[in-house]
Amino acid sequence: MPHVVKKNFRLLRRILYFALAIGIVLIFIPQKGRFKYEFQKGKPWMHDDLYAPFDFPIYKTDAELFSERAEILKNFSPFYRFDSTVAQEAIQQFRVDFHETWVKFIAENNGVQPLSLSKVNELSTFYENEAINAIQHVMDSGILNKTENLVSNDMASSKLTILAGNVARETLYENVFTKRKALEYVKNKLQQATPPGRTPVGNIWAYMDLQKYIQPNLMYDDFITQKYKNEQIASISLTKGMIQVGERIISKGELITSSIYQVLESLKKEYEIHLGSRNSAIVTAGNALMVTALFIILYMFILSFRPEVFRNDAKILFILMLITLMAVISIYIIKSSLFSIYIVPLVIVPIYILTFFDSRLALFTHLVTIFLVGFFVPNSFEFVFINFIAGMVAIISMTNFYRRGRLFVTVGMVYATYALLLVGLAAVEEGNIKDFESINLLWFAINALLLLALYQLVYLFERIFGFLSDATLIELSDTNLDLLRKLAEVAPGTFQHSLQVANLAETAIQHVGGNPLLVRAGALYHDIGKMANPLYFIENQPYDFNPHRNLDFTESASIIINHVTEGVRIGRKAGLPDQLIDFIQTHHGTSKVRYFYQRHLDKFDNGAADAVKFTYPGPIPPSKETAILMMADAVEAASRSMKNVTEENIKELVDTLINQQLADGQFNDANITFKDISTIKSVFKKKLLNIYHARIEYPETKANE
């Protein structure tokens, strides 16, 4: 009874996860109706003549709005506040410093001594006025405190707006100064200045630091700049004309041109808003029904075809999180109208799923995601079509992802797919490939960059959800790791056995489908528990030494069985992922230590009552990978003890062992079919024949034939 309650509770918990995901999507999904006509640019209008049911505006395309925004930003001039006190303070300080410096200059410069006092005073006034005039000029023109806010690539043509009190004036960048430019101007002016009577004197300016008096007085005003910029962008009209009620929009069979297409898109937008506002409760119920249907289909698929995923809360939550997050982001992008929906990297969903699960689940999850988003995006058919193809390309190209640089190849292929499909749609809709919206290439490029960036979260998801990526499995399969090196040193026979099991299991799973990297890593670690008592296992025993000779059968069985629990303990202590612990825990399932159990039965007539003492604790293998490992482990171990290795003996051995495991119900929880098992048997037979070079008997032939 408690087991039934616990099982039902788990089921209710998973249903709650799906209900929560549905609720989140419904909270964010636009509450508007759906336009009842399907149409495509460049195709004939397949419905009856269409007349405007009400007055509505013609909306501009995203490309038109983007172009207008770009034009505003290109011609926009940032705001700088003019500070008049900077010039006053600089000139006042200059007068004080100049008089002090002039006295020093007169005392040290012999070239001035022969001049009369009045001439010296005249020179002082001349130089002081020349410097003040030059400083005043650059100050009046304005000296910038920063130039990075000027947006034009051609700085000479960049504009800025100067705020002096309540007065604003627009000027070119070339009409104001930077600090360096202002200092150069003042120095040049003073060098060119000719004193009265061309009286030869020394260089007074060598005694002064002119840079001290050249200070910025045009201060960038970020608040006013951003406010005005936002006002300019907000003032962009979203529409470009009106359609009156009753006006004919298109006739049946008429070709949908670009202009008509935009009118239809505008009608669709207004129609959906009007319908949603008039019948919001009905529209909400319809949205709930469609969204729920998609999640129910996903639920049934996982329950029927991926039961191992369904049994794991973390896996269910991860899949639902991806779908929900992509739907919410897409809804936000659509509502904001700042970017194209094609900037959303929906292909990351199948990439993530494929990284941690398999291609079939990745494709199904991708379909659910794009169908869900397709409910509320413009041009639903085009959107679903383009993203379906891009997702398929990603899934196919991600095969053998562990190869270096494969991610870049995948992202490049996805971008190329988007671009080619865009050109193809333009050819169909516009009749040529020149009129497609090239701005979409930019959105697709950003999409590709986001794919590269977001994939780095794989390592974070591994830690949070306890997943394993191919890269991590490759690292764990390195036989130079401490745990595997210790296994090779302490139990060399077991290590060699594990290598052979890994080769058998990996070859088998490549034929029936599954994760070869996972099964190889699991095989390498499945017998690490034998390190606790290596000599009690035949593959590690030296010639003519067997410690079981002096033990009771139950004691021997206990030591043998204990290598599973010891392996789990060692694995957890070493920090092995739970997926690899599963291989250690289930590679014998709930089978018996048959050799010692049979000896026990032979010795004691009532020995069957002690069967539990000879039975591994289990559980049985939960997946195809763990089931294949169980088969490979049994077959490889038994083949080592064969005295007469022939093709017939090997075939009989493989069939007997795997059929016995099948009869014992060891594969009941694994997603493996009888066809898979038949294929695995054939692979094992062929592989073992190659390993042991079994002699195949041919019909006798005559010597001269």
- What is the subunit organization of this protein? single chain
Strand numbers in spatial order across the main sheet: 5-4-3-6
Report the count of strand segments: 8
Measure the end-to-end span.
Answer: 74 Å
CATH class of the largest domain: Mainly Alpha
Strand content is under 5%
CATH topology of the largest domain: Hypothetical protein af1432
Kindly report the average pLDDT value: 85
Number of domains: 3
Helix content: 55-70%
- Detail the poorly predicted runs: 694-705
- Sheet of most strands: 4 strands, mixed
Question: Architecture of the largest domain, according to CATH?
Answer: Orthogonal Bundle
What form results from the Cα inertia axes? flat
Radius of gyration over all CA atoms, rounded = 41 Å
The SS-based structural class is: mainly alpha
Number of helices: 26
Describe this structure as you would to a colleague.
This protein is mainly alpha-helical. The protein has 3 domains: 2-33 and 279-461, no CATH class; 74-233, no CATH class; 470-692, Orthogonal Bundle (Hypothetical protein af1432), CATH 1.10.3210. 60% of the residues lie in helices and 5% in strands. The chain is built from 26 helices and 8 strands. The strands form 3 sheets. A 4-stranded mixed sheet has the order 5-4-3-6. Strands 1-8 form a two-stranded antiparallel sheet. A hairpin with a 2-residue loop joins strand 4 (159-164) and strand 5. Helix 8 (280-305) packs antiparallel against helix 12 (359-374), helix 19 crosses helix 24 and helix 24 (624-640) crosses helix 25. The model is unreliable at 694-705 (pLDDT under 50).
